[in-house]
Specification:
Elements lengths: L3 E4 L5 H12 L3 E6 L10 E5 L5 H15 L4 E4 L14 H29 L2 E6 L3 H4 L5 H21 L4 E8 L5 H4 L3 H8 L10 H11 L11 E4 L8
Parallel strand pairs: 1-2, 1-4, 2-3, 4-5, 5-6, 6-7
Length: 236
């Protein structure tokens, strides 16, 4: 059997593409989801979990360990947005986004490290965003959380590297998802005007970077930030 892989927020969009890519390689893949789902591919193990709840995270890992064994590859992907200008942003809006996008990554990394330390091996990949490097007007909360993932991953890389555990970040740019398809045509053109490659990324292209970081070929890479943004964030 393949490795035990856990993808948080793996029931749709980028997370689902990542989970599907690992499953296609023969890995045993579990995905966390907050709301009930009934249309996941059969090869994926759905585990309901609110990543803002430490007890729920522990229970989700216990389920995965029972079904697939200790998690060998963790992809921390779960996240939310709640955009708004700084002067109008509530403290609850800021803290809830940071909790879901950043603190939750700490929760799942801490829980995953338990099995990885025993095995003296493991891969952690944190899905950040180009806005964590560039900043984004109206996304102080989201950009702060995504930037924080870089510090988290690099600290984990230094702390656990001697035990054969790597920690890296993938920073997607604008991706062709349901969310971006809802943007107006004018806004889509404005965004594409900033991207040197002149197109959106596919979710499969993000997944390819994540699966590579978890592959044997990336065994000597840790603490890295891999942009998959069409050149949007060059220099950062």
């Amino acid at each position: 059997m393949g490795r035990s892989v856990l993808v948080t927020g793996g029931n749709r969009g980028i997370g689902l593409a990542i989970a599907t890519a690992f499953a296609a390689q023969g890995d045993q893949v579990a995905v966390t989801h907050r709301s009930p789902v009934d249309d996941l591919p059969g090869e994926l193990l759905p585990v309901q979990c609110d990543v803002t709840d430490s007890a729920a995270v522990d229970a989700a890992f216990s389920t995965v360990e029972d079904k697939h064994g200790p998690v060998q590859v963790l992809v921390s992907n779960a996240g939310i947005t709640d955009d708004g200008l700084l002067m109008r942003m509530s403290e609850e809006s800021f803290t809830s986004v940071v909790d879901t996008n950043l603190t939750a990554a700490y929760r799942v990394a801490k829980r995953a490290s338990r099995g990885m330390l025993k095995a003296k091996a493991g891969r952690m990949v944190f899905v950040s965003s180009v806005v964590g490097l560039l900043g984004s007007a109206g996304q102080v909360n989201y950009a702060s959380a995504k930037a924080g993932l870089v510090g988290l991953a690099r600290s984990v890389a230094r702390e656990l590297g001697s035990r054969g555990i790597t920690a890296n970040v993938v920073a997607p740019g604008f991706v062709d998802t349901d969310m971006t398809r809802k943007l107006s045509e004018a806004r889509r053109k404005e965004i594409l005007g900033q991207v040197p490659l002149g197109r959106y990324a596919s979710t499969e292209e993000i997944a390819a970077a994540v699966t590579w970081l978890a592959s044997d070929g990336a065994g000597y890479i840790t603490g890295a930030v891999i942009p998959v943004d069409g050149g949007l964030g060059m220099g950062h």
